[in-house]
Amino acid sequence: MTLEKLMGEMIVCFRKYAGSDGNSGTLSQQELSEMAKKEFPTLCQSPKKDEILKEIFTQMDRDKSNTIDFKEFMIFLTCMTMALEDCCK
Amino acid sequence: MTLEKLMGEMIVCFRKYAGSDGNSGTLSQQELSEMAKKEFPTLCQSPKKDEILKEIFTQMDRDKSNTIDFKEFMIFLTCMTMALEDCCK
């Protein structure tokens, strides 16, 4: 898969979960949890996953709007990818 | 493909091109051009692609080290994805 397609996949994925409540522009706490369970199965193996997901939502919601917009989602994904890359050195 | 796997794909892709010159930690101008041609085929259809790629390299190289590290690569990819998402509204 090309990077061009990977970028498209990230947009499609965000909109898929963000659209559950009819508003496809933002992720609610519930939608983020749903995304995490399906998209980050390794993270969600933790018995503390509910606690972790609540903390992640708070961290992601940089403007404290109680929802995650696409920019906040991408910033989080970038930070996660950089942390993962650092682990794989 | 899950987001977890997409993140891994981005790391693999960066290292694949960054490793051409034996140093897999950074992309040179030449390596970036190679990546762009393979990974952004739509962008590279432009007859001005060489000019555009030179400008992109300068923009990506935030610390002016004349190479692109993984962080710079991810910042660029994030900006591109946000711009793409904005176009698809």
How would you describe this structure in keywords?
89 residues, 4 helices, 64% helix, mainly alpha, globular, homodimer
Condensed summary:
The structure is a homodimer of 89-residue chains. Chain A is mainly alpha-helical and 89 residues long.
Please characterize this protein's 3D structure:
The structure is a homodimer of 89-residue chains. By secondary structure, chain A is mainly alpha-helical. Chain A is built from four helices and two strands. The first copy, chain A, has helices at residues 3-18, 29-39, 49-60, 70-87; strands at residues 26-27, 68-69. A two-stranded antiparallel ribbon of chain A has the order 1-2. The radius of gyration of chain A is 13 Å and the shape is globular. The two termini of chain A are 23 Å apart. The model of chain A has no long low-confidence stretch (mean pLDDT 92). The A-B interface holds A 1-4, 6-11, 13-14, 35, 38-43, 70-71, 74-75, 77-78, 80-82, 84-85, 88 and B 1-4, 6-11, 13-14, 35, 38-43, 70-71, 74-75, 77-78, 80-82, 84-85, 88. Chains A, B: It comes from Eleutherodactylus coqui (Puerto Rican coqui). Chains A, B: One of its GO terms (molecular function) is calcium ion binding. Chains A, B: Keywords: Calcium, Metal-binding. Chains A, B: InterPro entries: EF-hand-dom_pair, EF_Hand_1_Ca_BS, EF_hand_dom, S-100_dom, S100_Ca-bd_sub. Chains A, B: This is EF-hand domain-containing protein.
